[in-house]
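Dear U.,

For the methods section draft, I wanted the exact inputs and outputs in one place so we can describe them consistently. I've listed the two proteins in the order they'll appear in the manuscript figures. Please don't edit the token lines directly; just add comments below if something needs changing.

First protein:
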Amino acid sequence: MCLPVAAACLCLSGNAMAAQTEEGEGGRIRQEAAASAHAAADGEAFPASPRTREDGGKYRVALVDYDEYLPSSRQFYYILAGLEENGWISEDSLPFSLQQVEQENLPIDQMYEALVDADLGPYLEFAEGAFHYLAYEDEEKVREDLTSRAGGDIDLIITSGTSAGVFVKNLNLPVPMTDYSATDPVASGIIDSATEGSGNPYVWAQVEPSLPFRQLKYYYSVCPFQKLGIIVYGDETISGVPDIEASSEEIGFELVKYNIEECKRETAQELEAYYEMVEEKIARIAEEGIDAFFLTVDLINDTSRLASLLTPLYDRNIPVYLMDDVSYVQHGALMLISANDMENVGRFVADTIAKIFNGAQAGSLPCVYTSAPSIYVNYDIANRIHYPLTFEFLTVCDAIFTEEGGNEDG
């Protein structure tokens, strides 16, 4: 049984929250993960300090993503911030701020084009025309472009997510690649091992170990559920299904899973047809007797549709937990316990890129970064569905949002 809401109104005061100690279940969650948090580094052999290429020129970077996805843009910003922090990008030369990325929902292609035109200093530049969205471009043409550039036009390929990482890895180019934000780089085949080398000297991928598995353990510890619903778009590995199924077996809850095959979502007509299908699936799964729903990546990419799509779940007091992206809490999901510390992951990826430019073999560098979780909750949604929140849990939330998007930082 979960404890009832206790003195919840007091938790909207930042001063009151700051005065509290990290007690109870929320504090235990934070402390447990913080104890295991680490970022492996190999700084002694290969420094992160900036340098030019041997010919005195700038290192040239390409980027491959799958489609527009705000968390990917935010993580890319933090990688750039990490490169700025260690001197590879000149201070105050980034052509956009984190606030712009978040408030304007800047997609990575627009960020990339701005970087191409910017003077980032003497060490680094982004190659013109070397950005690709796999969802919208002919993959053979992307392959031809990257293969031709690998002959000397680019020094590094950054990939975002599972699909882009698998695609570039399979090209077997003689240019190092660094992948970030893939759900499970080992299971998807980007790298062979998170701890024993990637299996390819040119390939590196950031690994957040068993992310959905750990998230579901956290959610279950806040309020146990017996029957969890998920709707998976496309590749089950990208959505973390193996970890979700392993969590189901270990914890002992039943999993109700619906699948949606990958489909075109480019035109307005295609998008409307897709979201009509998602709406129907959510309405059906809400009637399956589930007592929690886990929103996985890439199912709903338009946060303006979130509130209406989740209505069938909330009408039955079913909490909606997130796999990714705090902005979804702002727009109407109940809770995110995020085990992805974007700022420090950005530093980790940036340091890896720096070490590669300083001579390190990409496939030999540490891949694992284990984050301490951040906790975000939508207070209005919790009240709407009568979700039990303890005072102790609320005191350790990083932010408490209202359904309209306001928040009080914890």
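Second protein (the one for the lower panel):
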Amino acid sequence: MRLSGKLFLLFAFILGSMAARAQYILPENFNSVKAADTAKENSSEDEGEILIKVKPGASDGIFKNSDDVSYTLRVDNLYKVTQDGKLTCYVTTDMGDKVFENTLNVHMTKKSSDNFKFKIDCKQDYGFFKVSFIFHLSSYDDTVKRVFGVNASKINPPLHKPADFDIFWKRTRDSLAKIAPQYKVTEEHALDVNNKRVYLVEMHSWGDKVVRGWLTIPITKNKKPLPVKYRLPGYIVALEPSLDDDDFVEFNFNVRGGGNSKSAIDTHGEYNLYNIENRDEYVYRAVYMDCVRGLDFLYAHAGLGIDTSKIMVDGSSQGGGLAIALAAMDRRIKVATVQVPLYADFRTAYDITALNPKSQTPVGMIVNYVRTHPKFNKEKLFDVWDYYDPLNFAPDVKCPVLMAIGLLDEFCPPRCSLAMYNKLTNKRNEWWSSPEKTHEVDELYYTKQFLWFQDIFRLD
């Protein structure tokens, strides 16, 4: 079920959103630079700016039907001179295939405003599309980029789940179980603020490596066990103690190679490339097991005031993919919230990312590795990554999932996130779209997230 932001307009006056830019390639003729006119540049009449507000026909940028796709642009000419020129709407699929182009004439007197509307024929009944609004005016050249979706529930790529996928991960978990966790919990008194106790947590995980996290426990009068927010980290992100919630135990866990678990592995600065040519030794095999071991810790320490029947796993980017994999492997997770999940539908993400040879995203690093290692081709890569793709874990997730995406996200293409979401089966799953965000979501989503898992926990 897709979310509607209308239920939360009450909160909008305290929450802001920032416009974000996407970077994708336009045809060469749209990238031309206006020739400089020195005399004009020195004229005081040419001082000013153009303000552009882009409004999709669907507030979240996701249209139910291809016939409904439209955009309205409000343009304010703050220059002291009339602006004449062209405004072009150019649309491609997320794989770069052109589907629509239309150009309007622009004539705006000084200090005036106008509205321009485009009805878009995307020629397909579902998918995600890139739209560019290209301005060539007397004193102003610019391109505003957006992404929209159509009938996203129809995005349903085939699974490439290896025949021994379940056996591989069962064998992996069985190996983890043989490693004594040797938990160590140390209260960090210097960090105890806001009526909360903060603990440094250490444990032995896959390969007998020590990984760490931060446990924050509110001091309550009723001594009732509290539900848990189990947070998993983004790509090489260091999670620090959380001190912002009085109603939940918060466990911010750093998998090996990041934060206070950095010393557990040395990937020589190429984290997601570490042993990438070997399915059994690939870095994410150990990382996924770190996440399981962190969950083991929570269950082993209910005496600290942890309600182990109400554990929510949360993650953004890499953490979102980890959350889906963990929820699939372990029924002890009762709720999952994921934002802009990295690596979802990895095969498609690879193909989309490969369109930009200069991509510096985590998937872009893998694309470049394959490009520069001819003996390790794309097929051999997928032979490894099919064991780690969150898409292949998604059908086994039985708990409710809330997912949020940014439509301008190049780290995690929206189509890939929705492909993963559509493989989930719980009827209480929901998703949220932030149409002007890149690798993040708008603040209003977090209000929804809080209310959502409060409601889920209350219903269970």
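Candidate sentences for the figure legend, describing the second protein: The CA atoms of residues 182 and 288 lie 19 Å apart. The two ends are 19 Å apart (CA to CA).

Thanks,
Y.
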